[in-house]
Amino acid sequence: MVVLNKIYTRTGDKGTTALGNGERVAKHDARVNAYGTSDELNATVGVARLHADGDMDQRLSLIQNDLFDLGADLCRPDMASDAEAEYTPLRVVEAQVNRLEAEIDDMNASLSPLRSFILPGGSALSAHLHICRTVARRAERLATELAEVEDVNPLAVKYLNRLSDWFFVAARTANNNGEDDVLWVPGANR
Questions:
Q1: Which CATH number fits the domain 24-78+87-109+121-180, given the four candidates 1.10.10.10, 1.20.1200.10, 3.40.50.12710, 3.20.20.80?
Q2: How confident is the model at residue 35 (pLDDT cuts 50, 70, 90)?
Q3: Average pLDDT, stretch 149-173?
Q4: What integer pLDDT is reported at residue 78 of this predicted model?
Q5: 63-77 pLDDT, tens per residue?
Q6: Residue 25: phi, psi to the nearest 5?
Q7: Contact, 74 vs 41, CB < 8 A?
Q8: CA 13, 138, 172, 92 torsion: positive or negative?
Q9: pLDDT digit string (tens) for 127-144?
Q10: Which DSSP string corresponds to 27-77?
């Protein structure tokens, strides 16, 4: 259980922060950038939820919870020592990826195939989901960059990859099941 009695601690005043294993690193460390961007993504999902209701809002709620799991996963280096940790570190699992895939398939079933790239926009919800998609892609790039030099749960990277696809399909769904998608017209303004 997390207990936050005091919000400021002054421990980061010199530009460092603690990882999940207690190790202190620079606030601009690659690992901090990766999990910090997952936190930013979570905030963009919160804004998107202002425009969602019903099933879409419920799905976005699950994603927000998953993103906290992802942040906890990314902030804890050294997966090899998980068994020796004081408590079992939280890691993204295959079931979370599978849920995203099932939801993508469910939403995609009612969409017409794309015949053009689409421009972010249409409804307010769709526009916000496209922002979520681009932030998810950045989080994925940062996680894969981190994985080149440090231990990263491969399922965390896989989750981010599926999540950006989820946001794309959800954005089309939010545009009247793709009927109100804004299509790219190559060279239209030459």
A1: 1.20.1200.10
A2: very high
A3: 97
A4: 75
A5: 999 999 999 999 998
A6: -135, 165
A7: no
A8: negative
A9: 999 999 999 999 999 999
A10: TT-HHHHHHHHHHHHHHHHHHHHTT--HHHHHHHHHHHHHHHHHHHHHT--
Place of tokens 């804890």: 76
| Cβ contact 156:90 at 8 Å | no
Residue with tokens 């010199």: 14
Report which of 167, 183, 176, 75 is spatially closest to residue 128, judged by C-alpha positions.
167
Paired tokens of 165:
């696809």
CA distance 95 to 118: 30
Enumerate residues 6+ apart whose C-beta is below 8 A from 90.
69, 72, 73, 76
Q: Give the residue among 190, 139, 145, 144 at the shortest CA–CA distance from 167.
A: 139
Q: Residue ranges per domain, the chain?
A: 24-78+87-109+121-180
Q: What is the value of pTM for the model shown?
A: 0.92
Q: Is pLDDT at 1 greater than 60 in this prediction?
A: no
In single-letter form, the type of residue at position 10 comes to: R
Residue 76 in tokens: 């804890």
Token pair of 122 as six digits: 């249409």
- The distance from CA 115 to its chain's CA centroid, rounded to whole angstroms, is 27
